[in-house]
Amino acid sequence: MWVMLDSNTLILTAGIILLASTVKGLTGFGFALTSLPLLSIFLEPQIAVPMITICSVFLDGYTLYEARQDVRYREIVPLVVSGIVGMTFGTYVLVSLDSRIIKLVIGVVTVLFTIASIKGLRWEIKNTSQASIPVGLLSGLLGGSISISGPPIVLFFNNQNVEKKTFRANLIAYFFCLYVATVPAYFYGDLITWGLIRSSLYLVPALFMGASIGIWLSHKVDETLFKRIALLLILVTGLMAILTAIGLV
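and the corresponding structure tokens:
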């Protein structure tokens, strides 16, 4: 399968990637949450999800270099290992399920995560190491199937009151490891092709530009207000994905 996007689709996709990478640069998460619901409106999930994975390798590698000194690797190892296991099953789901079902899941997961974030939902977790395993498995399953691995991890770190710099750095390191491990699985499942890689490379300038803007904004704009705007945007795009899946858009 040789997938190569036409120029108009690439331009539209680049705009979405620019927006999503800006959110990622500011908050440390939200790239797939912002981009996937929009991309899934005009791209099949079997194209959009691997494309986001390729872009995420570049994006997280770029931002990880900047945040590398704040990463607590001992804390993320259990998450990464269990996440990779979950990702394997998620890849099978992506290959096997109908695209409308995947779009519906994308929308529902996006909306639920956004509502939880807005409400500041928290659970008391006493044994962090044991809790890391199911959290990582769920994150990997979501990441492999719909490229949205963030919700369980973000809620988990937020729940544990992880300090801001470490929170962001651990997220980036986790996502980078998970996406790097996902690429071979997608190649094996014929989801990543050379044509898709070529299309994704055209998006790299928009990717780095957005990340740089997001990092700059994090020092200039009130972060609480910007996160609220980002969450509202994510909520709207999640609802759009649901409407698309059920044929109302």
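(Above: one complete record from the training split.) The two ends are 28 Å apart (CA to CA).
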